[in-house]
Amino acid sequence: MIQGPLVDAFGRVHTNLRLSVTDRCNIRCFYCMPTEQVQFRPRHEILSFEEITRFVRVAARLGIRKIRITGGEPLVRSQLPALVRLLRQIPGIDELALTTNGVLLAEQAAALRQAGLDRLNISLDTLDPEKFQRLTRRDLLDRVLKGIFAARTAGFQAIKLNAIAVRNMTEDEIVPLARFARQHDLELRFIEYMPLDGDRTWHSDQVLQGAEILRRLEQAFGPLEPIERTDASQPATDYRFASGQGRIGLITPVSQPFCEQCNRLRLTAEGQIRNCLFSTDEWDARALLRANAPDEDLARLIRACVAGKHAARGGDSSEFVRPDRAMFQIGG
Predict the structure, then answer these.
(1) Angstrom distance (rounded) from CA 95 to CA 97
(2) pLDDT tens digits, residue range 56-99?
(3) N or C: lower Cβ tally within 10 Å for the chain?
């Protein structure tokens, strides 16, 4: 196998893989999926656990060290703890994380922790049941909250909450979410709304920018102190409250993109490698996996994907070019 790290044309070393295990979901967040008539991939197109494990084993030999399991909603994939156990056994993988909407987490948190999952990110855009239903088109806030507390009971530490920031919709959620996170020793991260919605109605005027979020937080809690980055590739700019209790992260891909330090690759649920959320190109790993091609061929494909990465936002321009696929089809 060709040795050496996964370095693109701009010197970025890739050590992080977002691994989607399904495009299906049990809620319908407007910023991710269409309201109705969602077209999911046929099940035979979705990679098996064995195929995923083989891909990750090859990627780990090329320098991938961190895996984040995503979807769709990954917890709707049957027997997910079994996949976590398989991935945990791969030499070179230092961290296994998962992003979930939390609806099924109460039932699965203990099994995931026992299987070897290290970290959790849980989506929570509001604590208001009516607004939750409007955002997700489902009445399931109570189950999400139960999932958060079940994860803590199961032994997960440093649980992160992800909140999408949408202008004229979530401004009033900023302070209550911050209070909730501080009360329960959770890390809260606000993420600017990106053009990855299934209904394709995103407009830049809808983006609630990180600077405004920070201003609202400081009006309520006093000055926030920036925290020095320990990892240059992390997408969030972190702050701590002056009191020392709690921290907040701002992820600002629209107003302050962080492409220069990006170290992430993505594998879609049906086995396409992507080098950016906004990439217009994909590299077909499933074809090689199902043809039982040698590991060297799979390694070359991964390297080709990295070599084809652009400087920013999936293209040669700094402007957003909306990909053909929505977030649930790509993997968060």
Answers:
(1) 6
(2) 999 999 999 999 999 999 999 999 999 999 999 999 999 999 99
(3) N
| DSSP codes joined into one string, 221-277 | H--EEE---SSTT-SPEEEEETTSS-EEEEE-TTTS--GGG--EEEE-TTSEEESST
Q: What is the pLDDT of residue 273?
A: 97
Q: Give 259: exposed, middle or buried? Use CB within 10 Å, 0-12, 13-18, 19+.
A: middle
Query: How many C-beta atoms surround the C-beta of residue 201 within 10 A?
Result: 10
Enumerate residues 6+ apart whose C-beta is below 8 A from 198. Answer: 30, 32, 33, 34, 38, 326, 327, 328
Query: Which ranges of the chain have pLDDT less than 70?
Result: 1-3, 197-199, 314-323, 326-327
What residue ranges do the domains of the chain occupy? Answer: 16-330
Pairing of strands 224-226, 237-241: antiparallel
**What number does CATH give the domain 16-330?**
3.20.20.70
pTM beyond 0.90, yes or no: yes
Place of tokens 């855009």: 125
